[in-house]
């Protein structure tokens, strides 16, 4: 049986390691690797890219831009960095959006969504697309994430036995309201302005809860959380990775845990609220559907494999 040759450039980082782990168990995939001494050698990396049927870039933005600038146009690349997510020459790798799977299937360049952006887009894009929410409505969004989202440096800080006391409590960041995910959050939801976005990191390894509050009065043609839930269910009815829960679906203790989907590649949507206000919630793993899971999903689509092959649902 012939195998797909896959190169993970940056396989030592959290996202790259997770992709490598997912693919190493596949019988139809051969993972191409480089010796440690060549890990940052541009020519060696380009040689592997030329051998590969598809390359994942799990690199800082500038390193991704450098490799792409030197890669042939027909090389199939999935970039997990921020570098190309709002680039018109790239396809955005959120397969569940209307028409997006076919765009990914035909693409040579696919930008994998950011973790915070994934939850926000999943909640807002269907409402704007269906004319339920005006594109000029001022939204706010809070996103609670595990510390693995900060990469190897933040992981080391949190897992240091002598860490500072500040890491024992949740911490709000992005205080200048210029988080790097905001451009894609605005563009992919078709909103005229970005949301007021509050990211929070807390003392758990991985998982996310992204929340968007809305008054019922902001919505057009619907008057209840039940109706919004049905709209989401209809929009994502063919998705293998997104599940829409029934309105007001609560755990026994009445709370949603942000780390419940740690290790998984799927995403759940919840709708809560009352007669006047609703709360939209997306729960998933920042390293799963928020990073490596979405990357493997896009690879599967691009190569004609089963969309969820190798993923943890």
Task: Give an account of the 3D structure.
With 313 residues, the chain is an alpha/beta fold. It has two domains: 4-112 and 291-303, NAD(P)-binding Rossmann-like Domain (Rossmann fold, 3-Layer(aba) Sandwich), CATH 3.40.50; 115-284, Dihydrodipicolinate Reductase, domain 2. It is built from nine helices and 13 strands. The protein has helices spanning 14-23, 42-51, 61-70, 100-106, 115-129, 151-159, 182-189, 225-235, 288-303; strands at 4-9, 29-32, 54-57, 77-79, 91-92, 109-111, 140-146, 171-172, 196-202, 208-215, 242-244, 267-273, 277-284. Strand 1, helix 1 (14-23) and strand 2 form a beta-alpha-beta unit. The longest helix has 16 residues, at 288-303. The chain is globular and about 60 Å long. Residues 5-105 form the Semialdehyde dehydrogenase NAD-binding domain. It is found in: Cytoplasm.
String of helices and strands: EHEHEHEEHEHEHEHEEHEEEH
Just name the CATH architecture of the largest domain.
Answer: 2-Layer Sandwich
Q: How many DSSP E strands?
A: 13
Enumerate the spans where pLDDT stays under 50 for 5 or more consecutive residues. none
Distance between the termini: 27 Å
**Per the principal axes of the C-alpha atoms, what is the gross shape?**
globular
CATH superfamily of the largest domain: Dihydrodipicolinate Reductase, domain 2
Q: CATH first level of the largest domain: which class?
A: Alpha Beta
Task: Classify the secondary structure makeup into a structural class.
Answer: alpha/beta
**What profile does the largest beta sheet have?**
7 strands, mixed
Q: The CATH topology of the largest domain, please?
A: Dihydrodipicolinate Reductase, domain 2
Number of domains: 2
Strand arrangement in the largest pleated sheet:
8-9-7-10-13-12-11
Proportion in helices? 25-40%
Strand content: 15-25%
Mean pLDDT, to the nearest integer, reads 96
Number of helices: 9
């Amino acid at each position: 049986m012939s195998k797909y040759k896959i190169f993970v450039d940056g396989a030592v980082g959290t996202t790259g390691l997770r992709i490598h782990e997912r693919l190493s168990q596949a019988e139809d995939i051969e993972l191409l690797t480089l010796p440690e001494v060549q890990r940052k050698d541009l020519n060696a990396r380009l040689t592997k890219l030329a051998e590969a049927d598809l390359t994942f870039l799990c690199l800082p933005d500038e390193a991704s831009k450098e490799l792409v600038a030197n890669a042939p146009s027909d090389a199939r690349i999935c970039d997990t960095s921020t570098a190309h997510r709002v680039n018109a020459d790239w396809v955005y790798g959120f397969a569940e959006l209307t028409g997006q799977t076919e765009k990914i299937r035909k693409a040579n360049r696919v930008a994998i969504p950011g973790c915070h952006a994934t939850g926000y887009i999943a909640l807002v894009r269907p409402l704007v697309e269906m004319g339920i929410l005006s594109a000029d409505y001022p939204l706010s969004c809070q996103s609670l994430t595990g510390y693995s989202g900060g990469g190897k440096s933040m992981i080391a800080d949190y897992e240091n036995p002598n860490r500072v006391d500040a890491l024992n409590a949740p911490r709000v960041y992005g205080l200048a309201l210029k988080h790097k995910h905001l451009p894609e959050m605005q563009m992919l939801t078709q909103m005229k302005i970005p949301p007021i976005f509050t990211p929070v990191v807390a003392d758990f390894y991985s998982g996310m809860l992204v929340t968007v509050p809305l008054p019922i009065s902001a919505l057009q043609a619907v008057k209840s959380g039940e109706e919004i839930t049905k709209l989401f269910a209809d929009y994502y009815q063919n998705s293998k990775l997104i599940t829409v829960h029934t309105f007001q679906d609560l755990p026994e203790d009445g709370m949603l845990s942000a780390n419940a989907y740690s290790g998984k590649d799927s995403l759940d949507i919840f709708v809560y609220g009352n007669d006047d206000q609703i709360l939209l919630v997306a729960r998933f793993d920042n390293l799963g559907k928020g990073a490596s899971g979405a990357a493997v999903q896009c690879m599967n689509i691009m190569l004609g494999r089963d969309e969820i092959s190798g993923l943890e649902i």
